[in-house]
Amino acid sequence: MNDRLDERSFEVAVDGGTLRVWEWGPADGIPMIALHGITAHGRSFRALAERLPDHHILAPDLRGRGASRDITGPFSMVAHAADVAAVLDHSGLEQATVLGHSMGGFAALVAAHRHPTRVARLVLVDGGLPLALPEAVLALPPDELIGAVIGPALTRLRMTFPSREAYRELWTAHPALAADWGPIIEAYVDEDLVGDAPELRPGATEESVLADGTSELLHDDVERAVDALVTPTSLVAASFGLLAADAPPLYSDDQIADFADAHEAVQVHRVPDVNHYTILLSERGADAVARILRPS
Question: Structure pTM?
Answer without folding.
Answer: 0.96
